[in-house]
Design brief:
- This protein is mainly beta and 372 residues long.
- The chain contains 4 helices and 18 strands.
- The protein has a single domain, classed as Porin (Beta Barrel), CATH 2.40.160.10.
- It has a 16-stranded antiparallel beta barrel.
- Helix content is 9%, strand content 52%.
- The longest helix has 19 residues.
């Protein structure tokens, strides 16, 4: 009877996360979902007699036998930020935000070829959204593996791939803030159908979407978005084997037409990493929809002082309205990133902002991120 109560309790605890509920494609970002935290799932003595229907409390979550469902896994992503803002002729302020509080549940079917995923960021609050629940949903999707390198995804999944910086996951951000072009043009999710692939020489993510962001109001328009990353020297052992170049394109309609493209390059050499991206838009559809012609550029370099500690620097230029040259903002950022554990990051950034239309400002950012 005690074993039955124990079993029932565990089932309810695992499924309650689904009822309670960016953000993260964990396996895509190099985090192995099949080895989640022992603390989160606990362990069972091998000598313990476990029902043959499924195995409980393994490092892989709940695994089912003789069932259409292969496994049910859960995780939790957390991120908080503290920042200090100072600008001449304005009051300085200190602010703390819970940026991400995100439970996730994933179900694997069909010999692990088909996945269903649901994640929700409880901390998200966007302006102009009448439905408080749908704006918080990060992922509600089904993916099916065509082969070992390629899959089809249906629903709202990872960020729309209209820029490289805008589409990276929260855990994989180099600095606390994404670049200006990344957080203006991209960094959004929409419902669609996409083909995602990772090969030796090329990665790509292309698809068609409803142009609504975070399910705000469907049927106002559609869009195409995709990026391609080429690794021309991936088969060599030379110093340029980690050189990559890519391009992204986004065209669609959301009340009005918009059209944007991005060019990207990156290079990794031992402990040194550098990346750069330029994006140009004739109208854009990010968190805010705009008819402006805009462009931006950033370059970011980092150096690993220690396997757990890196120092970073970034120059970031953005003009949200090319007709008005006085709208330009430039950011000069330096920072430290510390990774005490595999799935945890602590970031400290200092940002100097030069505005062409107002006094310069200083921003100090501190962020803690972890996933279990």
């Amino acid at each position: 009877m005690k074993k039955f109560i124990f079993l029932l309790t565990i089932i309810l605890l695992n499924y309650s996360s689904c009822l309670a509920i960016e953000e993260v494609n964990l396996e895509k970002e190099g985090i192995n979902l099949d080895r989640l935290s022992d603390i989160y799932y606990g362990k069972v003595d091998d000598k313990e007699k476990i029902p043959s229907v499924f195995n409980l409390f393994t490092e892989k979550g709940i695994e089912f036998e003789n069932s259409p469902i292969n496994s049910v896994k859960a995780s939790f992503l957390y991120g908080s930020e503290m920042n200090y803002f100072n600008q001449r002729n304005k009051s300085s302020y200190f602010k703390h935000d819970f940026t991400v509080i995100e439970p996730m549940v994933r179900v694997k079917f069909n010999e692990n070829k088909t996945n269903a995923m649901f994640t929700i960021n409880i901390a998200r609050s966007l302006d102009g959204y009448s439905n408080d629940f749908t704006q918080k949903i990060n992922k509600i999707c089904i993916s099916h593996g065509i082969n070992d390198n390629q899959s089809i995804v249906i629903g709202q999944a990872d960020r729309v791939p209209n820029t490289f910086n805008g589409s990276i996951s929260y855990m994989n951000q180099d600095m606390v803030l994404k670049s200006q072009l990344g957080r203006t043009f991209g960094n959004v999710r929409s419902v669609g159908v996409r083909n995602v692939a990772k090969y030796k020489y090329i990665d790509y993510d292309i698809g068609f979407y409803d142009s609504t962001r975070y399910m705000k109001d469907f049927s106002q328009g559609t869009e195409f978005a995709g990026n391609v990353l080429i690794k021309p020297f991936a088969n060599t052992d030379s110093e340029i084997s980690d050189f990559k170049v890519g391009a992204a394109y986004n065209i669609g309609n959301y009340y009005t037409n918009y059209n944007q493209y991005a060019l990207y390059t990156s290079y990794d050499y031992n402990k040194f990493h550098i990346k750069a991206e330029y994006a140009n838009a004739d109208g854009y559809n990010g968190i805010v929809n705009s008819q402006n012609k805009a462009d931006g550029f950033y370059t970011l370099s980092s150096y690993e002082i220690h396997p757990k500690l890196s120092v970073l620097g970034r120059y970031d230029y953005f003009n949200p309205n090319n007709i008005n040259s006085s709208s330009v903002t430039q950011e000069y950022s330096v920072g430290l990133t510390y990774k005490p554990f595999k799935n945890m990051k602590i970031l400290l950034n200092f940002v100097r902002r030069n505005y062409s239309h107002s006094p310069d400002s200083n921003l100090v950012l501190f962020a803690t991120k972890f996933i279990i």
